[in-house]
Amino acid sequence: MSRNIMILPGDGIGPEIVREACRVLEAVNDSFDLKLNFVDELIGGASIDVYGEPLTDAAVERARECDAILLGAVGGPKWDTIDRAIRPERGLLKIRSSLELYANLRPALLYPQLVDASSLKPEVVSGLDILIVRELTGGIYFGEPRGIRTLENGEREGYNTYKYSESEIERIGRTAFEMARKRNKKVCSVDKANVLEATILWREVMDRLAPEYPDVALSHMYVDNAAMQLVRAPKQFDVLVTGNMFGDILSDAAAMLTGSIGMLPSASLNKHGRGMYEPCHGSAPDIAGQGIANPLATILSASMMLRYSLGETAAADAIETAVGEVLDQGLRTADIYTSGTEKVGTVQMGDAVLAAL
Ligand code: NAD
Fold it and tell me: Can you give the pTM of this predicted structure?
């Protein structure tokens, strides 16, 4: 049975890093006889330039028919000043909400070879293996009403709405408990229940779910403390579950513990386990077109796709082993380079992973 994979390179370094991930996918497609078909589409600024919108309805319909999606990144200065309603990021929000990709899994795993690339002391980060579970289709990024309005006194006011329903909290909470069961059986739920009513409910729902998972230990932490603990003693965490905005911020902080955001893959799943896979970073316009971006987060996202949406564990293992071997060989893109290692570009890194495969 063949499987269709939608490829959305996006903008900036997106096309460069997705090209390397596709070469790796094509290699395992042949060697493991995966029967993958690749379907190309535009998203973000690339789509705005052609269609005048960041993701067409036709692209969403094609995405619905695919078994999984691999995305690069969207956005860049070229589109920063256009109408907010058609900004590149709107394409991302549209595909996440249209396909109900509510569970964003962001592993922050430190490869032992990269312990010196982290900005934290080796003893603080070595052995780090955290999974951040971020709610992706609710909270303040989607809440209505939202906008910028003019008040009676003529002053303008920006406003957004932070809300979560019980069912939204419950389904992401269950994802976190299920994931913890496959790991070290600890869930830390992050909220701001001392200030925000939406997160008082969040905490209540998490407490209500906990007895259904007696083998998993649930704890709660305020988001400001969680930010501090992530850089103070990050190894205390196993699974960290939180809402959309807090997860956005905390997962970028966790990314740096691992040396570079260029190493971190992510999965965004719906209730059927179908999903979109993408690196945690953005389109990095500052280095786009220079051939120096790290493609490993995207290559590892492809491996998560094989594991979580396609059930191809052996192929996923092979990719992850190959990435480890390349790091063992001392090859590093600029973002993870330390003295004594060999600096390589995007394509050379892709070549090395292919050779290791
Ligand atoms: P960014 O993640 O693109 O870049 C932050 C820093 O990390 C930059 O210095 C960049 O060079 C570096 N970096 C990122 N990925 C890298 C890689 N693979 N290899 C080496 N270095 C890498 O974040 P930003 O600068 O805040 O945003 C740039 C653009 O990306 C904006 O338009 C933003 O809206 C967009 N963005 C998109 C996504 C997404 O598509 N999911 C996520 C975040 C930001």
Answer: 0.89
